[in-house]
């Protein structure tokens, strides 16, 4: 029964697709060709490096305090031992919290990356929409999103047309036109 439903779905999809003109773009290629995106990526990489250095500094401090505690454990008594152990434990918690806040599932890196890519995604989406309307494309696939394209005739690859449209409308091009 499942195979029958799948067969009907594929048949219906084939009929729908055959009536549509299909185009393919590579958004990763486009992003890598946009100078503004490269600048934003460099800023993100710099921020990540700063966060990693900050965490590494805390980790080094933690390692030193933990080693000192282990070396002096026999000399410490009662409250001194508890106080030093608490310092080490608090620093460990601080490091773990910082890593989670910066690089965790709901971390700052995701927000920063989202804020970084959102404007470019919007620009690319608008350019793809313009190119697809101009070329009457019914379906546009993105090669960079793990879609297996085994063969693609160059006439169906609209990546360069989208990139040309984006670069034509870029702030650098507008500044060049004003200078002329």
Describe what this molecule looks like in 3D.
There is one protein chain. The chain is mostly helical. The protein has one domain (13-178). 75% of the residues lie in helices and 4% in strands. It contains seven helices and two strands; from the N terminus they run H-E-H-H-H-H-E-H-H. The protein has helices at residues 2-19, 27-33, 35-72, 78-103, 108-134, 159-168, 171-179; strands at residues 22-25, 139-142. The protein is rod-shaped. The model has no long low-confidence stretch (mean pLDDT 81).
Topology of helices and strands:
Blueprint: H1 2-19, E1 22-25, H2 27-33, H3 35-72, H4 78-103, H5 108-134, E2 139-142, H6 159-168, H7 171-179
Parallel strand pairs: 1-2
Family: Belongs to the Skp family.
Protein name: Periplasmic chaperone for outer membrane proteins Skp
Pfam families: OmpH
Overall SS class: mainly alpha
User: What count of domains describes the coordinates?
Assistant: 1
- Helix share of residues? over 70%
Strand content: under 5%
In spatial order, strands of the major sheet run 1-2
Indicate the low-confidence ranges by residue numbers: none
Q: Care to count the β-strands?
A: 2
> How many DSSP helices?
7
Order of helices and strands: HEHHHHEHH
Radius of gyration: 27 Å
């Amino acid at each position: 029964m499942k195979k029958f439903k799948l067969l009907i779905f594929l048949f219906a999809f084939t009929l729908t697709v055959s009536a549509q003109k299909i185009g393919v773009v590579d958004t990763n290629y486009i992003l890598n060709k946009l100078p503004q995106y490269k600048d934003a990526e460099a800023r993100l990489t710099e921020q990540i490096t700063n966060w990693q250095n900050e965490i590494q500094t805390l980790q080094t401090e933690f390692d030193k305090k933990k080693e000192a505690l282990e070396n002096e454990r026999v000399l410490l008594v009662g409250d001194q031992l508890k106080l030093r152990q608490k310092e080490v434990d608090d620093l460990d918690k601080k490091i773990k919290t910082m890593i989670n806040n910066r690089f965790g599932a709901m971390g700052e890196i995701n927000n920063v990356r989202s804020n970084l890519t959102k404007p470019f995604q919007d620009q690319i989406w608008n350019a793809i929409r313009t190119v697809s309307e101009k070329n009457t494309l019914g379906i546009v696939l993105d090669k960079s999103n793990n879609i297996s394209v085994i063969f693609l005739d160059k006439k169906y690859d609209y990546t360069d047309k989208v990139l040309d449209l984006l670069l034509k409308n870029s702030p650098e091009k507008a500044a060049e036109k004003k200078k002329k």
